Amino acid sequence: MKTDTIKQVVILLIAITGLYFSGLNLIKISNIQSFSDVVTVMTFFACFFPSLILTANLSAKTLKSILKLATH
């Protein structure tokens, strides 16, 4: 595994962890009433988009590797 892929997996794990815990807090919020609620929403979206992009990138790498193995 290349160093770049390992870094992407580590960043993905961090982003998914942040996404999970901020999502749990976001579910509990009915209205945005304080600054901590705003930080929770910002954390959720700051983790959502990197996790989405990294998941797509790592899935493409995995698919390419599987196709390479299947053709040889």
Topology, please?
Layout lengths: L2 H26 L6 H37 L1
Q: What do these coordinates show?
A:
- With 72 residues, this protein is mainly α.
- The chain has one domain.
- Helices cover 88% and strands 0% of the residues.
- The chain has helices spanning 3-28, 35-71.
- Helix 1 packs antiparallel against helix 2.
- The longest helix is centred in the C-terminal third of the chain and has 37 residues, at 35-71.
- The radius of gyration is 17 Å and the shape is elongated.
- The two termini are 19 Å apart.
Computed Rg? 17 Å
Number of domains: 1
Distance between the termini: 19 Å
| Class inferred from helices and paired strands | mainly alpha
Low-confidence stretches: none
DSSP E strands, number: 0
Number of continuous helical runs: 2
Q: What percent of residues are in strands?
A: under 5%
Helix content: over 70%
Main sheet record: none
- Report the average pLDDT across residues: 92
Order of helix and strand elements from N to C terminus: HH
The coarse overall form would be: elongated
Features of this protein?
2 helices, single chain, 72 residues, 0% strand, mainly alpha, elongated
Write a brief caption for the model:
It contains two helices and no strands.
